[in-house]
Fold these 3 entries.
Entry 1:
Amino acid sequence: MLFSGYPLSFYIYLIPAILISITFHELSHGFVSYKLGDPTAKNLGRLTLNPLKHLDILGTLMMLLSGFGWAKPVPINTTYYKDKRKGTILVSLAGPLSNILLALIFAFPMIYLENTFGLQHGSLYKGVDIRVIIYNFCFIAYFINIRLAVFNIIPIPPLDGSRLLTVLLPQRQYFKMQQYENYIGLGFLVLIFMLPGVLNTIMSPFLWVVETGIGFIVNPILKLFS
């Protein structure tokens, strides 16, 4: 289980971090699609910061248990796009990119506290000191957003990467894959539960690239103000 060994009180940090992450993820999909001329998400009330509109029960449970998960996909209608291929790519990438942006934002106070007070990266601290509270929340939000971004790029339903296949695969192959979409998604869930280490191994290089990139941005900026 995610953060195993820590008291249940840490879910006070984890749950709001997840709600913030998935809300901005799905809102970004809908907002970009809306800007490209598609009113579907707006008409369905999905252009909102209300997390209840975006929650997928299974996807949220997966995030609580494994650190990987998803929200309820925002419906889009690509027929509204002037350039269907470009629009689909932009909308698909909007969610993961929004999570990388959130991770970048949370990285500033997280890294500042690590550098200033000698907090160890990746550790969660007990206590009610304001620095501890801020650090724990920022680290968990940073952690969740990076994993959510990388995980959702995997080209397997119901993840965002599967939408990219609509423009990357020949139409015949894509429609053939769609016939087995439910079976592929179910098999993927079984893989996560039974062999979580495999997914971690696959994602680790990409997680490292994102974390390293964020560090290259945040550290020099913090040094300017130190």
Entry 2:
Amino acid sequence: MAQTQMIDLFKKKEPKVDVVVQIVPYGTFDQQLLQATAAGRGPDVARVWIQNLGMHVESKGLQPLDEFFKHWTKEQKEDFIFRSSWQDAVFDGLKMAFYVEHRVRVLWYRADLLGAKNVKPRHARWRS
């Protein structure tokens, strides 16, 4: 798993830092994160849905990330695999989050296999 590989690489670079991954059910995550940060026991890093980010920013449970990237150039700020804008996830001029994944609702298909059966998808661009 990519996450495990990234954590392993981080641990090699920073052996004194403990990394504990805690998986929280989707249905209760936001409520638990809000409660934990209000109690001063929030995680150092959390993955939240972009749709819910505003709620967490408003709760003052997140730390702005700007100080960690103040020396980045414009090119560095634009060098992301997901071509989102640096201004994404900026609230009141403060960078509060980064996109770590992008979910595209598309259906991929094997044109060679469908073509061999003489099948063409409807409502789709056909590429051979």
Entry 3:
Amino acid sequence: MVVPFDPQRFRGVARAYAARAAYAPRLFERVVELVPLRATDRVLDLGCGTGAIAIALAPRVGHAIGIDPEPEMLARAEAAAVAAGVRVEWIAASSYDLAAQRGRLGALRAVAIGRACHWMDRAATLAELDRSIERGGAVVLFDSKHPDVPANAWHAEFRALVDRCVADEPSRVLRDGWPTHQAILLASPFAALEAIAITERRRTSIDTIVARTRAMALVAPHADAIEGELRALLARHADGDGTVAEVHTSRALIARREG
């Protein structure tokens, strides 16, 4: 089953993306080492949002490309790339446009997808990427989680609150019981899997965590309604400076062709 494509799903949430938990910089270093990525390679960040992955990889490769269907995401990505002093080619498109963009994309060494694969037709996307990724290349799925440790006690309550908001959302209901990304990859041309993870301790402000609800496509329409309850929840776990302890794991699943 596939969530129907909605090009406006992320309309209006880009401004809050800076509040999302950032990937650990060391994760990108490990991906570059393990794929490996070289100074002449072409790399695509598919469903790039505000461009965090493309911008992180751009200094390490020959040409970085970011694709996203939301104009505000791309505008913010372009501004962030300029601020970081890196060059990235931005394309207004989606995973459903990959065949049409194949000539422009060229031969890719790697395609990164960060917290976006669940919005795609995963099997069809991987089949199309098999036509664009060069021999020896890889698909890399980036995501993150909050491990079950005492410092993250607040996060279980946070998840319960936001899950309650979206319990009846059609796309959320549709994804219940879905095959995992690993299962889809194992049935694809990219069935040789290697997982890496970097776990860090951080301190994060209550304001930043509240803003994360506005960066979540399904939760954003409910963000105003739950803000008071969320702030009260976080206040129970915060220190006097208004920050909350956060243990965050940044993960990458590297998928190559077997053999």
